[in-house]
Structures are given as C-alpha cells and as structure tokens.
Amino acid sequence: MNEKTRPNDYIIDLKHISKSFEDTQVLDDISMYIRRNEFLTLLGPSGCGKTTLLRIIGGFESATEGEVLFEGKNIGDLPPYKRKINTVFQKYALFPHMNVEDNISFGLQIKKMDKKLIQKKVYEMLELVNLKGYEKRSIDSLSGGQQQRIAIARALVNEPQVLLLDEPLGALDLKLRKGMQLELKKIQQKVGITFIYVTHDQEEALTMSDTIAIMNEGRVQQIGTPVDIYNEPKNAFVADFIGESNILQGIMLKDYLVRFHDVDFECVDRGFGENMPIDVVVRPEDIKIVDKDQGMLNGLVESVTFKGVHYEMIVKSTSYSWIVHSTVMSPIGSQVGMVITPPDIHIMKRR
User: Fold this and answer.
1) CA-to-CA distance for 76 and 58, rounded, in angstroms?
2) Domains, the chain
3) What is the pTM of this model?
4) Which of 197, 249, 267, 302 has its CA 20 to 30 A from that of 131?
C-alpha cells in the first residue's frame, strides 16, 4: 500500500473501523484502503476478525465505529443489494432445486433483464469459469470444485466492482484447492475487478495475492506484497504466522551490527539505535549447514524430517533449537556448523 497512491487509484477506504459484540471487541480501529483491480487477502488465525471485516464491507454487519467509503462515498447505511459488491460464501449458498443456468441467472431474473441477454451472460460466465455446456446440470451432480465455480459465476454475472470471498476453498481437498487457487487468480485477472479474499491459509495467501493484510486480535499487523511480508515481517507475530521462522531476542549494537545467541553478526539493518533490544528473524531456508569448524554457530542435529523438496532439521545449539531447511541431510547426532549471511538476518522492534 504505497502512501503516494492517489485516491482515485483505490476503490474502498476503511476509516477507523471498530466492531463490538456486546462486551467483546472484534475489530479495533482498522484503517486501510483497497485499490482497484487488486487481489487483496485478509489473512490471520481463526477469531482475528477478518470475516467480520469482510461482512462489514459487504453490508452484512454494521461497524460500531468508523466509515466504509466506496469510491469516496460512505456506504455504511446501504444494504448489501444496493452495493456494487457481491460475495461468495464458504458454503456457496447455491439453490439445489435449480439447475446451473437458473442459479447463475437468479440475480438477473430478479432485475427482470431480457431473457436473451440473461442467456448470453450466463454462457459468458460458464466459459469464464471453464464449465461451458453445464447450464442444464443439476447442482447435486457437480463436484465441490464445480459448485465453487458456479458460485463465482453467479456473483460475477451481476458485474460487481468488488468481489468478496470468505474462505471459498475451505471445503475442497488439498489437490483441488491448489488448482483452484490458480484458477481464481486467472479469473480475477480476466474480469479485472477487485477481489477481497479471506483465509487463514498462509500458502494460499502467498500464492494468490497482490497484497496481504495480516490480522490478529482485531488489528491489522502488517500490509504489503507477499514478498515484502515474507522477507520483511514487522513483528514476531507476522514472522511466525507467515512460514516457519527462527525468532530470537537480540541487541542492536549499532547500525549494521547485531548480537544474538551471544554472537555478533553483521546485518543490513540500520536506524534502530545503539544497544537497543530487538527481535531477530532467520528463515530456516536461509541457514547454511557447513562443517563444524567453519560455522558461525555450532549445534547437534536432534531430528530430521523429509518434507519432499527439502529436509527439515532441528539443530540444538547452546541455548536455542534452530529449524533448518536444506536439500542435503545431516544425520541425527552429527555436529554441524551454521552460517547466516547479513541479508538473511531480519531485525524487528521488540514488542
């Protein structure tokens, strides 16, 4: 979210959104904007408030405080059907007594659109979601992945400017879910509208998103591109939630020099002050295993797990058990050295 982005480049602006249910605060002063044609993912653990925020954008919940601006206008009092926003729910909410064509065209029929135009739009949507020729199929005859595509087609046929998706892949098996991640991104690029996607799956968010907003306990922890969030987490929660991490307490001795694990390391960070307490993040794949006498740190390999494309090793050092990912396995019980280069040491302010 570049601060230099002009207002006409974004379509939704959330200003100081808070939401409470009786005595429980679910959202706490969230402010963020969402750009046109962007695939933005709200990512966080269960109960962090991401679905509540999505429902407020869609008009299914009202904020206790704050404003939802759509193209600069407050839409807080507009009901869902009057917003230029459609939603795909996790359970799809398809009508089992209607065939595919009638499900997709339902909203258009309510608007009393011309029948030939409705049919044309339905066929266009079926082609978009790769289900051409399925118009007369019953909903019960479709697989979970096909039903999910029909739900997307039904939402898109009304030509919304924003599509909300609340964990729509949660009911699919792993292989199908991975395939649908790529399909959803292709669909979003084809229709050229804004997608706001809710998930607790980190890999899903990294695969699909232009921008990720990490949420925890009703607050946005960090907003950025997948690469930025993975490589430059702003705090320990983000670092731990996005991928696996080694997180240690340390002291920023001065610019470009940090001490952790009782060793001084060169790094690429500056501006934290001198002798300041900080947190250090080192990703498991950024630790190089070497001979014991060549390591900046030494340790004993306590466990080895084959993960398919790499081995995950737990290396016990004097006061910390390191997670290390490597394509070369070091056997359990072996003494190894570890090397960490300056760009792979990420410094964060201690919370």
Assistant:
1) 10
2) 7-236 (3.40.50.300), 244-349 (2.40.50.140)
3) 0.85
4) 197
